[in-house]
Design a protein that fits this description.
By secondary structure, the protein is of the alpha+beta class. The chain has one domain: Alpha-Beta Plaits (2-Layer Sandwich). The chain has helices spanning 16-26, 56-64, 68-75; strands at 3-10, 32-39, 46-53, 85-87. Strands 2-3-1-4 form a 4-stranded antiparallel β-sheet. The chain is globular. 5% of the residues are buried.
């Protein structure tokens, strides 16, 4: 069953473009069906990422592939640690 993950987050000032580039790495992940990244019309540092994965296992495998140091580096680019909303098809 496919899985949709939605992140809402704010990048630290001056890091938005670096964060956007980092999401290009995600696009090559095994089991990732699609990734859409949106910026707020009024605050370009506020982003929303919508990922669709082939399965929860694919998503978990991708997230688990990061070392604690890599995860900490990524999290340091945001004003707060992004908390994902995880969804499956309702119909």
């Amino acid at each position: 069953m496919s899985l949709t993950v939605i992140y809402n987050f704010n990048t630290k000032p001056g890091l938005r473009d670096q964060v956007i580039q980092a999401f290009n790495i995600v696009k090559g992940a095994a089991g990732l069906n699609s990734l859409e990244l949106y910026k707020d019309k009024e605050n370009a540092d506020k982003l929303v990422c919508v990922e669709n994965w082939a399965s929860e296992k694919h998503h978990d495998t991708f997230i688990g592939s990061f070392t604690p140091e890599q995860a900490a580096t990524a999290e340091s680019m945001f004003t707060e640690k992004p908390q994902p909303g995880i969804y499956s098809m309702a119909v």
